Amino acid sequence: MTRGEMKYEGKAKRVYATENPHEYVVEYKDDATAFNAQKRGSWQGKGATNNAITAHLYPQLEAAGIPTHFIEKLSDREQRVKAVTIVPVEVIVRNTAAGSFSKRLGVEEGTKLSRPVVEYCYKSDELGDPLINTDTALALGWAEEKDLKRIRELALQIRDFLVPYFEKRGVNLIDFKLEFGKLPDGEIVLADEISPDTCRFWDMETNEKMDKDRFRRDLGGIEEAYAEMLRRVTAEG
Ligand SMILES: Nc1ncnc2c1ncn2[C@@H]1O[C@H](COP(=O)(O)OP(=O)(O)O)[C@@H](O)[C@H]1O
Ligand SMILES: [Mg+2]
């Protein structure tokens, strides 16, 4: 698998073309950003850890009936994926109030929600990924109705897989962000990554944060937290 031209560079990953037009190589960087890239940092091992966590979870999601872009892990930092057209709508699934949800609604962080909440944001660095609803995505042509329906269904299926998966490993999955893409045949698949960059993970016993909030909020111990999450994700359930 040879890496061709770089197709996109994001805040945490680079996407490269390959000799196969239907496949890309994703490279995970050590860079971290928060608050719409106003805060920047990086630490050694971050890219490798997120690559390993995603590469461990996606095949299990596939086995649970959730189509994904993942093909195989190529190296410490790289994976081979199916090339998709990313739907420019980020999907957030919340189990417990935290972060922007708590701020916006005045709900104390850690308040358990009586049912999962699916939120949508427009994927736009310039605008800071603003909260939208599905009507907005339809009206502005970002997605079709059937695709949004499928995306919501998959997001909730992913939640139903991940919540007990992490619970067995002593981790409370507070919330997470997903990106979906479209294959040439129109199928919607889970793309991007699932990692401590994109999820809130709280230790079930201590409520200690084990995710990017350690970076956002300057809590320290970030490398250790990511390494511990990799250890737990790959532990037997
Ligand atoms: N299978 C895929 N095909 C095409 N693009 C993808 C795929 N998986 C992820 N991407 C895109 O790769 C880009 C790089 O990732 P990342 O660094 O996380 O970007 P961002 O700064 O937008 O979060 C993102 O825009 C993401 O949507
Ligand atoms: Mg990203």
Please tell me about this protein's structure:
- With 237 residues, this protein is of the alpha+beta class.
- It has two domains: 6-82, Phosphorylase Kinase, domain 1 (2-Layer Sandwich); 85-220, 2-Layer Sandwich (D-amino Acid Aminotransferase, Chain A, domain 1), CATH 3.30.470.
- The chain has helices at residues 46-63, 99-105, 134-139, 145-167, 213-216, 222-234, and strands at 6-9, 13-17, 23-28, 31-34, 39-42, 70-73, 78-82, 85-86, 89-96, 112-122, 131-132, 171-178, 180-182, 188-190, 199-203.
- The strands form four sheets. The chain has a five-stranded antiparallel β-sheet with strand order 1-2-3-7-6.
- α1 packs parallel to α6 (222-234).
- The chain is globular, with a radius of gyration of 17 Å.
- The chain starts with 5 loop residues before the first strand and ends with a helix.
- The model has no long low-confidence stretch (mean pLDDT 97).
- It binds adenosine-5'-diphosphate and magnesium ion.
- Magnesium ion (MG) binds next to loops.
